[in-house]
Fold this sequence. Notes:
The structure is a homodimer.
Chain A: H1 4-11, H2 15-23, E1 31-32, E2 38-39, H3 42-56, H4 61-71, H5 79-112, H6 122-128
Antiparallel strand pairs in A: 1-2
The structure holds a DNA duplex.
Amino acid sequence: xxxxxxxxxxxxxxxxxxxxxxxxxxxxxxxxxxxxxxxxxxxxxxxxxxxxxxxxxxxxxxxxxxxxxxxxxxxxxxxxxxxxxxxxxxxxxxxxxxxxxxxxxxxxxxxxxxxxxxxxxxxxxxxxxxxxxxxxx
Amino acid sequence: xxxxxxxxxxxxxxxxxxxxxxxxxxxxxxxxxxxxxxxxxxxxxxxxxxxxxxxxxxxxxxxxxxxxxxxxxxxxxxxxxxxxxxxxxxxxxxxxxxxxxxxxxxxxxxxxxxxxxxxxxxxxxxxxxxxxxxxxx
DNA sequence: GTAATCTCTCTAGCGGCTATAGCTTCAAGG
DNA sequence: CCTTGAAGCTATAGCCGCTAGAGAGATTAC
Lengths: 137, 137
Ligand SMILES: [Zn+2]
Ligand SMILES: [Zn+2]
Ligand SMILES: [Zn+2]
Ligand SMILES: [Zn+2]
């Protein structure tokens, strides 16, 4: 049996975050000690590790809840899990593309300023006028 | 003189967002009509366009506030504006790198599942075990 | 004059935590 | 057994950048 602090240290998830996950229904309310403190089993520790890793990979709480439900039914087909992961991947790719458009626009803007006064600053001018931009964002 | 709805349509910034920007100190409280409705000048319309463009480029409210203050002092050196833009660019580059690491990890994971049952699903296994990952995230 | 459309303020909610306050419980040392 | 200090408890509020809704009043077009 582990205290909340112990599983926090072992998984790298902070104590208030663990309580938050419980509230959000990611983890079941665990057993309690006589003095009402949370006591976790090894299985619960591992589940929290799963959640941590999924969060580190950028999955949302909702997506993780669905994945945990699937994980509890090992004989079901995994198509749903694969779909969640693929959708997340597509989402990440979109974000990368958007950020790359911003990156190219911003690096052009930053390079174009020859550091004079605000009145002549290309950064300021570019912000005032989207038509100076190369593409959309 | 423009109503809030008119500048919303012209700039593409939604009405509640304009009020929010006012509350956040990005734009001054404008004149009011006899019936207490906001009335904007052309200069204020343009300033909102500046804000919209800066937001579209991903700048934070705080950064935009600073840029607007600089914009009001055309004779000052623009080093500060350039610094804000460069910092933001660096920040975007970091986010791109992080997302690219996630992308490569996730695309590997998604590709590795041969769509069987949950018990054998590589997506689920990879989430349970970070040591299956190629790099950190 | 009336109806339709804006606009007003105020409040609450989103996601994913994080921080604080004021309390209780636990574990270790004497 | 008792004390002390760390750790845990609940409840509440705050972060960012909006967005949504309620219930009221203002404006505009016909
Ligand atoms: Zn400059
Ligand atoms: Zn632009
Ligand atoms: Zn699978
Ligand atoms: Zn990993």
